[in-house]
Amino acid sequence: MQAVVHRWHERDGKVVANPNIGYGACTITYADGSSREFYRIGLSANTTGISVYVLGLDDKTYLARTYGGSIGKAGVTGYCIKFRHLAVINVDVLQAAIQYGMSVHQAG
Question: Any idea where the domains of the chain sit in the sequence?
Answer without folding.
Answer: 2-103
